[in-house]
Design a protein that fits this description.
This protein is α+β, with helices and mostly antiparallel strands. The chain is about 40% helix and about 30% strand. It is globular, with a radius of gyration of 16 Å.
């Protein structure tokens, strides 16, 4: 799955950028990674606002083999196959995935700032 195909797939949502990482790719909107590609499969960010959507459709999480042979599970879930042919519904799922990614990213920035402030005292 090449970057041009991915950008075209998400045109009904908004412009996205695709960056290679870890043998796959990250899909970004507004500088936030909301989806990833691994083994020709797209996974969307899952969070409080959309986890039930993935559960309802029994869509698996993205997993990989971590150091020490442990299985790591990330908060990205397989995108429904039908979305590859339905740009309007894909845009709805992508909006929720971006929202989940933005919500997840926001607290991290706050914690880092708080740590820096505490360490300077």
């Amino acid at each position: 799955m090449d970057a041009e195909f991915i950008r075209e797939l998400f045109t009904g949502f908004r412009p996205v950028t695709v960056r290679r990482l870890f043998g796959g790719a990250g899909i970004f909107a507004d500088g936030v990674m909301f989806a990833l590609v691994s083994d020709e499969t797209i996974y969307l960010k899952a969070g409080e606002n959309n986890e039930a959507d993935f559960e309802r459709e029994d869509l698996p999480p993205f997993c990989y083999q971590a150091k020490g042979g442990k299985r790591a599970v990330m908060s990205y879930r397989k995108m429904p196959e039908r979305l590859y042919d339905d740009p309007e519904e894909l845009a709805q799922w992508a909006r929720k995935a971006l929202q989940a990614a933005q919500q997840k990213a926001a607290p991290k920035r706050g914690r880092v700032a708080a740590k820096k402030t505490k360490s300077k005292r």
